[in-house]
What we know:
The chain is of the alpha+beta class and 292 residues long. It has helices spanning 2-66, 105-116, 190-193, and strands at residues 72-79, 86-89, 102-103, 127-130, 136-137, 152-160, 164-168, 182-185, 194-200, 203-207, 215-218, 221-224, 239-243, 249-258, 272-282. 28% of the residues lie in helices and 29% in strands.
Amino acid sequence: MKQTQRKNDxxxxxxxxxxxxxxxxxxxxxxxxxxxxxxxxxxxxxxxxALLALVAVTAATVAWFSIADRARVRTMSLExxxxxxxxxxxxxxxxxxxxxxxLSFESIAKRIQSEKGFSMEETPxxxxxxxxxxxxxxxxxxxxxxxxxxxxEVTLHFMAEKDMVVHLTSANSSESSTDGTVVLSETAGLPExxxxxxxxxxxxxxxxxxxxxxxxxxxxMKTFGLPGAxxxxxxxxxxxxxxxxxxxxxxxxxxxLEGTAPTCTDELRASQYAIRLRFTGxxxxxxxxxxx
Length: 292
């Protein structure tokens, strides 16, 4: 009987050893798998972050193309209010008294409707870009039809009673007036995405509302900003085309949303804006021509 008991003890001891070995092997196997799982987790996380970064970059690249399908003109006026010696119109005339001091949104919209076939009130601007302020393209490089309404084009005619250099100015005509150049919108980033160009005499001047009191020149094209109304002075930075006494000058104006501008994002969707442009003449001494 003792011999039988001894055999049972040996059998149980062997089974216990097998269980212990099996447990240790399982522990080693579990321990071996943990680093692999951790590594795979890190790899998956890195891939996810890379994909998110790619999506962010892609979104930033294409956002400018989709933003402005509902951006509309609320009101626009082109005003020459400080200088009685300077006038403009949408057509050329023989004498300065046939020109006007103010062009309204309605008259500009009517001319664009007649020449281009679309309504400024109903056709939204679209983000475009240009190298020369003549040919405009979408993000994919395709050329924009000037009758599509994606940007605005109109010809202004100027005449002066004396020789002068015409400036765009943010200054108000008097302390009681608010009529200086400005682009207004309830959407903060829209003015900085707007561009307005003037082309004459084989030169182009581009007004960038977000540029501040600076300018840059590339070939025959100058881009400039304007300071606040209270700091505005007539200078080379904001000087544009020259006029000869009694001679008409045609100036082609373009207005567009610059798709490559940092603020040209989806935040501009459904935005409204107002544009006011004020021109003045410099007789050559850095002073506005005096009103009489």
